[in-house]
Amino acid sequence: MEITFPVIDFSKLNGEKRGATMEMIKDACENWGFFELMNHGISHELMDTVERLTKEHYRKCMEQRFKEMVESKGLEAVQSEINDLDWESTFFLRHLPESNISEIPDLEEDYRKVMKEFVVELEKLAEQLLDLLCENLGLEKGYLKKAFYGSKGPTFGTKVSNYPPCPKPELIKGLRAHTDAGGIILLFQDDKVSGLQLLKDDQWIDVPPIKHSIVINLGDQLEVITNGKYESVMHRVIAQTDGTRMSIASFYNPGSDSVIYPAPALLDKEAEKSQVYPKFVFEDYMKVYAGLKFQDKEPRFEAMKTMESTVNLGPIATV
Predict the structure, then answer these.
(1) Cα-based angle 6, 250, 290 (whole degrees, multiple of 5)
(2) Which residue among 49, 157, 211, 225 has the highest number of C-beta atoms inside a 10 angstrom radius?
């Protein structure tokens, strides 16, 4: 039986197909940890401009640097599998709680401006999605946003990546397999060059490149808050021999001092004492994740359990 990756028409939430669309989102969250949104409300013109300027920036400012790195490490001549680096050229933008876009060197002014516009739209979409997840989970509206809020609001940032052609894709991954540490991830990816795959039922499944779509995936923090009802999923990028793949992944994460724990409404009353997932401060999780990103997530959760007794669990900060 062929497995069909979930592609969801977001505009249908506004009509008679709302129930069926919510059911598709629920199924994708429970069984995939990933889905692809069409008609999500972000202008195609804006997305086209972001793509054009991202690719121009790579060619002007990053491509040569990447080639020099490959040469200096002798990567084109490798004979055995490389497990300690990725075939990618990246830079990071921070948006919340404070933006660093004006501080990033080499960005043209029109690129800075358009990225600011784009992330405002992505932030709105992320918060809309969190409320839809609340609805499907039976949580009060705004619960997930509040859980992410901390004392200064959520953390929101973007990883801008390009995956250049790779002579030995069987030996070097574009990006090694991992789950995402944070909350909800919104990806604008190349519609011509593929490479993103997720692990489902022990098989690697391609995430189809579709023009003007936004790919959504769930991070470790949503797994904890839903007490495992929605799980983060292993994914990777396979390098290609032809074409450079663009990837703009925006991470809507908890604030650094947010206390993360399973939502009480999702715990069985009898099982409340033996909840599966720990309670921790997001920043502490990120410190553990930094060293264990490309390993299974379970040891990270175990590490947080050992720290759990030191966390003072207050009420969720309200906006």
Answers:
(1) 105
(2) 225
Q: List Cβ neighbours of 63 (8 Å cut-off, separation of 6 or more).
A: 89, 162, 164
Radius of gyration, CA atoms only, the chain: 20
pLDDT tens digits, one per residue of 30-58: 999 999 999 999 999 999 999 999 999 99
pLDDT at 247 over 60: yes
69 near 82, Cβ under 8 Å? Answer: no
Half-sphere exposure of 302 (CA within 13 A, CB side): 6
Three state DSSP letters for 174-207: CEEEECCCCCEEEEEECCCCCCEEEEECCEEEEC
Residue 225: predicted pLDDT: 98
User: Tokens representing 243?
Assistant: 């074409």
Q: Contact at 8 Å (CB) between 144 and 134? A: yes
Q: How many residues are listed for the chain in this entry?
A: 319
User: Which of 227, 312, 305 has the alpha carbon at shortest distance from 264?
Assistant: 227
Please tell me what DSSP assigns to residue 156: E
For 124, the 3-state DSSP assignment is: helix
Cβ partners under 8 Å of residue 269, min gap 6: none
CA gap 198, 275 in Å, rounded? 27
pLDDT of amino acid 275 = 72
Residue 148 per-residue DSSP state: T
Decide: 161 and 249 in contact? Cβ < 8 Å: yes
CA distance 161 to 163: 7
Is it the case that residue 85 has pLDDT exceeding 70? yes
Give CA–CA dist 305/146, Å, rounded: 23
Q: How far apart are CA 287 and CA 203, in angstroms?
A: 30
Query: 177: which residues sit within 8 A by CB, 6+ positions away?
Result: 199, 234, 235, 236, 294
CA–CA gap between residue 11 and residue 248 (Å, rounded): 23
**Region for residue 50 given its phi and psi (left: phi exceeds 0; alpha: psi -120 to 50; beta: otherwise):** alpha
